[in-house]
Amino acid sequence: MSRRLLEKQIARIKEKYPEEEFFDRLFEKVASSYVDFERVQKLKDRSIRLMSQELHDLYRAQEEKQQAFISTILGKIVDGIITCNKAGKIISVNSSAEHIIGKNESEVRDLELSTILADFETYDEFLSHYYLNLAKNENQIEVSISGKSEAQIPCEVSVSQFEMDEVSTIVILRDITERKKVEAIIIEEKEKAEKASRAKAEFLSTMSHEIRTPMNSIIGMTNILIQDDFDEETMNLLNTLKFSSEHLLVLINDILDFNKIEAGKIEFEHIDFNLKELVENINESHKYRANEKGVQIELEIDPMVPNWVVGDPGRLSQILTNLVGNAVKFTTEGSVITRLTPQQKEGSTIDILFEVIDTGIGIAEGKQKLIFESFSQSETYTTRQYGGTGLGLAITKKLIELQNGHLEVTSTPRIGSNFHFSLQFTLSNTPDDALAKPVAGAYATQDELVGLKILLVEDNPINQFVAGKFLSKWKCNVTIAENGHEAWEKVQADEFDIILMDLQMPGKNGFEATREIRNSDKVYKDIPIIALTATALLEEKNRALKAGMNDFVTKPFNPKELYEKILKNMTHST
Ligand code: ADP
User: Fold this and answer.
1) Quick one: which of 69, 73, 208, 379 is 20 to 30 A from 262 by CA?
2) What gap in Å lies between CA 317 and CA 337, rounded to an integer?
């Protein structure tokens, strides 16, 4: 009830009972109560007002503190942060972003994000590109920011999207200019290093090639001299000359091979070959040296090892030659045994364990790993005492590994060493008792080539002389052509039984001349052509065969090999 209504009612009652004082007192009581009440009410109102003002101030202070905190953080963050609305319009940028863009917030606010992205026409195009990369698990993409100046700034960008007030996208930019600079330097350095390494490889390859040419002559001449009957002392000198020059050639080939392995350019052949004959030949070629030192050289081939297998005979020879050569080199008494044991035969393949066992100086346990590294020898005095480059085992190990084998050694100093590895071969269809070559043994008589008309295409006079000397010895009728062009003319003018064709010649080379002959429609179209080349590279061999040549002999040629290849190709063609 309101104060006025109550006072009215009391007044009315008072009128009815004027003598009654009680109503006057009541009236006063009510009036004073109201006064008290209003005072309290006022006080309450005031304190509520005060409290709410305080609360409001407190809230404002808190909010300002928070705002300041967020903007300090945003200002301190090195990454640029841009917020955008749903339409891709820029709402805010932090100071790092201002720095990257080269404009302040007021200049870019309300602009579409794509206006600062060099590679995107629209905000949507940018977002779809980003999400496409996100699907590939790349949550950062590289973009170029069009800064104030002409130059674009490379940045790494990540995006997060959510709904809060008007903000829908936060774009984080990281300036990667410095990183790009460092990357460019690294790439440049890498290219420089690769260039230098290529130059080194080319230099080594050219040098070894160049050295091979005079080596060719030395070995060729020695081979000629050895054919004659000299007294024992001269023969010994000639044999040493032959051994040393062949050894030098092995070293040159090692450098070439090492180069090729380093460049990952090595290929393996898969051809039928007589394994037994191959190991016999290797032992045979080390016999002279071993016997000279009084060391026995032996072969132990398990009867279950097939004679014929499919693989790379050239590389296997190289591996075994190195191991047997080392064994002979580091053994002064006792024996060197090459042992072949079949391991497992599965389907059309067979694994064969090769062991080269010697009773030589041995290798201390601590040095056994080291010797497989390039240019490493077990002792520093080794080079002085035994010679060598320390390349042989590194190459051998790599050649075995590239054929999925593993070269290991067990050795005891002063007792000897056992170098062993196992290789897988495909079984051959050639019957076990087939002869290694259709002409094996023919070299003994050397009379099957008599009267053969041979065109020798060779530009180097020493090579002409060496080849000519042997061919005349075998009573062949030799015509010489200095280059491919002359060969082509002579083939048309005369009839030949076979052509021995050098590959690298000035003017028309051996490949071109062969192609010309093969592409003609005359009788000489199918004449057997044997490539004579200074490199043993498989690519070169394949190139020669592809050009239409029938066979391949590496210079400096082994007279027996040349003889047998000529005979084999004559036999095949008739
Ligand atoms: P090189 O024989 O040209 O020095 P290798 O790589 O073939 O290079 O051999 C590396 C080193 O391994 C040799 O110098 C020698 O110290 C050691 N070595 C290799 N084979 C034998 C062996 N059969 N007996 C003892 N030491 C060996």
Assistant:
1) 379
2) 16
Predicted confidence at residue 6, as pLDDT, reads: 78
Ramachandran angles phi, psi of 455, nearest 5°: -100, 115
Helices (H), 312-431: 313-329, 381-386, 392-401
Residue 275 and residue 354 in contact, taking contact as beta carbons nearer than 8 Å: no
* Contact between residue 390 and residue 374 where contact means Cβ atoms under 8 Å apart: yes
Q: Is 2 helix (H, G, I), strand (E, B) or coil?
A: coil
C-alpha distances in Å from residue 477, one per residue of 441, 451, 496, 572: 23, 6, 9, 20
DSSP-assigned beta bridge partners for residue 311: 271
* CA 268 to ligand 1 centroid distance, Å: 25
One-letter identity of residue 313: P
Residue identifier of the C-alpha nearest atom 19 of ligand 1 = 326
Q: Domain 266-427: give its CATH code.
A: 3.30.565.10
In degrees rounded to 5, what are phi and psi of residue 475?
Answer: 60, 40
CATH architecture observed for domain 443-569: 3-Layer(aba) Sandwich (3.40)
Burial of 282 (0-12, 13-18, 19+ CB in 10 A): buried
**Rounded distance, CA 267 to CA 537, Å?**
9
Amino acid identity of residue 518, one-letter, is R
In the numeric block, which tokens belong to residue 503? 């590959």
The token duo for 12 is: 């009315």
The DSSP annotation for 4-55 comes to: HHHHHHHHHHHHH-TT-HHHHHHHHHHHHHHHHHHHHHHHHHHHHHHHHHHH
What are 52-94's pLDDT values in tens digits? 999 999 999 998 998 888 878 877 888 999 999 989 999 999 9
- In whole angstroms, give the CA distance from residue 98 to residue 107: 10
Q: Which two tokens stand for residue 168?
A: 């829908």
Ligand 1 centroid to residue 371 C-alpha, Å: 6
- Domain made up of 77-175: CATH architecture: 2-Layer Sandwich (3.30)
The pLDDT tens digits for 183-218 are: 999 999 999 998 888 887 778 777 777 787 788 888
Ligand 1 is surrounded, with C-beta below 6 A, by 322, 326-327, 330, 358, 360-363, 371, 377-378, 382, 388-394, 417
Extents of the domains making up the chain: 3-73, 77-175, 266-427, 443-569
- Mutating to test ligand 1, I would choose from 247, 258, 326 the residue with most ligand atoms within 8 A of its C-beta, which is 326
Q: How far apart are CA 130 and CA 142, in angstroms?
A: 10
